[in-house]
Specification:
Blueprint (H helix, E strand, L loop, with lengths): L5 H16 L15 H6 L1 H7 L3 E13 L2 E8 L2 E8 H4 L1 H7 L7 E10 L5 E12 L15 H6 L1 H7 L1 H23 L3 E2 L5 E2 L11 E4 L4 E5 L4 H9 L4 E9 L11 E10 L3 H20 L3 E4 L2 E4 L5 E4 H9 L8 H10 L10 H13 L7 E7 L15 E9 L2 E8 L4 H12 L10 H9 L4 E7 H9 L16
Helix pairs in contact: 7-8, 8-10, 8-16, 9-15, 11-13, 12-13, 14-15
């Protein structure tokens, strides 16, 4: 198959060869800019009054030839800027090269700024340089493309032609930076834990497995970093967090991708009540910084982040939205009632798993404003401390916003004997079980102080703040079927 196909590519290839014949390298090594497009527009009065020569670079996204003059728009990360090229200024030979430019080419220009009769800020070009020759034309009708998968597969084009997409990913990084700033200012230490793990754990999920040739042993892409971060609490780092990728070999839909970004936060000498306060303070900080207020609209519905946030127990929430008081039912009755309410119960599921599926189906969609659901069944929370009232529940909460589960937190179990027994119990749940990690048990025997832990889904937080319906819209390169 030839690398260049179609009339448009062949035409551009011919122009590239003509650039080379003129002694111009069509793939330059660099260009020294004095300003971005936004800086030119923001500082126009000062630049214009001083007659300052600016050097700006960007991709040509508009090009109009008018005999001895040419208008074009160049685009960089921050926006677009009009440029004006004239034969009388550039000279006949240099202006002739303008005809070798195409939409998509990346150029650098130098000149002074002025405004046109229509009031548009423009650079009057004195010199220009070809920096990269584009050999494939940009699509004319890409925005709103029905084949949304093509936009995901060719994200580089999506970013060029859709400024809203660029804004989403710039906002994503701002959200992550605000989270970091908040935690760093409060004395938390950012750490890095293994992505390749000899034993996967810290969550219920199927791992991606591979083989480490040097040690001749199986390893797994982490499904969670929880157990490593708790080891650091044992090691007296006391307040730690990690932002990173997790990997789960499971299904894909609008809320799930096999690799995703989360943050896990652990703090010694606190519990799940402390983690509730931290969650509320952290997310209101981020929303205020990014949106400028504590209310926003997500998919047509208003969400109010103003604290204090609602708190409802796990069983009270189920009772409210299903009409059933599951706290009074036996294990067999929970399973049979779950089936009656449309849950496809798997044979190996513990009763708590049925209740969790009921929560997802009947409760979560109704939780628009931030809501803490707390005090979960013990059999689906093997790493959480039992409630101090002696019930068969644990000190765990999940935070729901806009119908989405955003985070999960515990008063962390630090009794090594009980943790070992919980791991043993989990083995009976087969695919749903928690893998035994004997080194983690050894760490608990050394002694872990009372600890609160919190995990938040970064991708879902971004979805809500930028108002998009799918996790793929906030991932630069979501996984796609070949």
């Amino acid at each position: 198959m030839p690398i260049f196909e179609g009339e448009h590519e062949r035409s551009r290839l011919e122009k590239l060869n003509r650039w080379k014949a003129l002694g111009v390298n069509p793939y330059a090594y660099g260009f020294e800019r004095t300003h971005t497009t936004d800086e030119v527009k923001s500082n126009y009065e000062q630049l214009h009054n001083a007659g300052t020569q600016v050097r700006v670079a960007g991709r040509i996204v508009g090009l109009r030839f008018h005999g001895g003059s040419t208008f074009a728009h160049i685009q960089d990360r921050e926006g677009k800027l009009q440029i004006y090229l004239k034969r009388d200024i550039l000279g006949e030979d240099i202006y002739g090269r303008v005809k070798l430019l195409d939409i998509g080419d990346i150029i650098g220009v130098e000149g002074e700024v002025f405004t046109t009769k229509t009031g548009e800020i423009t650079v009057l070009v004195r010199k220009f340089w070809l920096l990269t020759k584009s050999l494939h034309p940009l699509p004319e009708k890409w925005h709103g493309l029905r084949d949304i998968e093509l936009r995901y597969r060719q994200r580089y084009i999506d970013l060029i032609v859709n400024p809203d997409v660029r804004r989403i990913f710039c906002t994503r990084m701002r959200i992550i930076n605000e989270i970091r700033d908040f935690l760093n200012q409060r004395g938390y230490i950012e750490v890095e834990t293994p992505i390749l793990q000899p034993i996967y754990g810290g969550a219920f999920a199927n791992p991606f497995a591979t083989h480490y040739e040097a040690l001749d042993q199986p390893v797994y892409l982490r499904i969670s970093n929880e157990l490593y971060l708790k080891r650091l609490i044992v090691g007296e780092l006391e307040k730690v967090y990690e932002i990173g990728r997790m990997f789960r070999n499971e299904g894909m839909d609008r809320l799930h991708n096999p690799e995703f970004t989360s943050i896990e936060i652990y703090e010694a000498y606190t519990d799940y009540e402390g983690m509730m306060r931290l969650t509320e303070e952290l997310l209101t900080h981020v929303v205020q910084k990014v949106k400028g207020k504590l209310t926003l609209t997500y998919q047509g519905k208003e969400i109010d982040f103003t604290p204090p946030w609602a708190r409802v127990t796990f069983f009270d929430a189920l009772h409210q939205y299903t009409g059933k008081d599951f706290s009074k039912l036996t294990a067999d009755e929970i399973v049979s009632t779950g089936k009656e309410l449309g849950i496809k119960v798997q044979p190996h599921w513990p009763p708590g798993k049925v209740l969790e599926k009921l929560l997802d189906k009947y409760v979560a969609p109704n939780l628009q404003n931030p809501t803490f659901i707390y005090d979960y069944p013990r059999d689906i929370s093997p790493l959480a401390k039992s409630k101090r009232d002696g019930s068969n529940l644990v000190e765990r909460f999940e935070i729901f916003i806009a119908g989405l589960e955003i985070g999960n937190a515990f008063s962390e179990l630090n009794d090594p004997q009980e943790q070992y027994q919980r791991f043993v119990e989990q083995q009976s749940y087969k695919a749903e079980g928690q893998i035994m990690d004997e080194d983690f048990i050894h760490a608990l025997k050394v002694g872990m102080p009372p600890t609160g832990g919190l995990g938040l889904g970064i991708d879902r937080i971004v979805m809500i703040l930028v108002d998009v319906p799918s996790i793929r819209d906030v991932m630069l390169f979501p996984h796609m079927r070949q």
